[in-house]
Amino acid sequence: MPIAFDRCTFAYRRRRYVIDRLNLTFSTGRTVLLGPNGAGKSTLLALAASALRPGAGTVRHESTRTTAKRAQLAAYRRNVAWMPQELSVVPGLTAREQVAYAGWLKGLSRREAWERALGALRQVELGNRADEKVSSLSGGQQRRVGVAQALVHEARVLLLDEPTAGMDPRQRTVFHEALAGLPPSVHVILSTHDTADLEAVYDQVVVVDEGRVAFQGPVRAFLGHADPAAVPGRKADSAYHTLTGGNRTWDS
Ligand SMILES: Nc1ncnc2c1ncn2[C@@H]1O[C@H](COP(=O)(O)OP(=O)(O)OP(=O)(O)O)[C@@H](O)[C@H]1O
User: Fold this and answer.
1) CB under 8 Å to 146, separation ≥6 — which residues?
2) In this protein, which residues make up the domain named ABC transporter (predicted)?
């Protein structure tokens, strides 16, 4: 079980609840999180990363919780890697230094972090840009640095918030290959608005809409919600429309 939300409630400051008594246990393997803008996907991932704390309820990875005391929380964070939607570029650092720094923060020794940083950058085809300043890389390349940061400490759960946004088609393929190359013991929960190749890349789909789970199940079951008349390339789009109950587009 990678991550479980038990009766979890969360609101930003004094605003209305983004999620309210949510029960959601993610399955093992590669899960894609879909939903309209503002549905709560980033909030769920940030709660799962322990970057946000629930107002009520718990978020668990195996026996550790995000609401635990310091030592247990550190154990939780070692097992769970998070790539937020907005990558923080550390001024002056090269790609390798930034990725190594992320690994060191997660408990790797300096030497180990430095060695593994290069390997993680190679996984996202940035090995040849390792010594360049992150600030000089393009938006899509910076997102790949973010993916490398999530990969560097070999966590058991990867939480990736729109990792392919801004990547060109070839880099999306490289990214999907990097996902496919992860050991089966590593679970991935990834949010995206990109539904191409759903069946080839992911095992499970979770559709979130207004903070509730509109669908959870294998990709094939998700595609089963498509209009039978939908052509193969439009099935995911059609299933999404059925499950979110409207005429909205992916980005509405
Ligand atoms: N820092 C914040 N302060 C106040 N409200 C926020 C904050 N971040 C998100 N929200 C609100 O919480 C709700 C869920 O937002 P969230 O970013 O989790 O959605 P999302 O599904 O990731 O959207 P997108 O697809 O656009 O990234 C939205 O109503 C949003 O306006």
Assistant:
1) 83, 84, 87, 163
2) 3-235
Strand order in the sheet with 17-25: 17-25, 4-11, 56-61, 64-65
Q: Which residues line ligand 1 (CB under 6 A)?
A: 12, 15, 18, 35, 37-43
CATH of 4-243, one of 3.40.50.720, 1.10.238.10, 3.40.50.300, 2.30.30.30: 3.40.50.300
Residue 212 burial (CB count, 10 A): 15
Query: Phi/psi at 30 (nearest 5 deg)?
Result: -105, 115
Question: Per residue in 199-238, pLDDT tens?
Answer: 888 999 999 999 999 999 999 999 999 999 998 888 999 9
Query: Which residue in the block uniquely carries the two structure tokens 């191409």?
Result: 196
Q: Given ligand 1 and candidates 22, 37, 210, which is best to mutate, with the most ligand atoms within 8 Å of its CB?
A: 37
Task: Tell me the pLDDT tens digit for each residue of 182-208.
Answer: 888 899 999 999 888 888 889 999 999
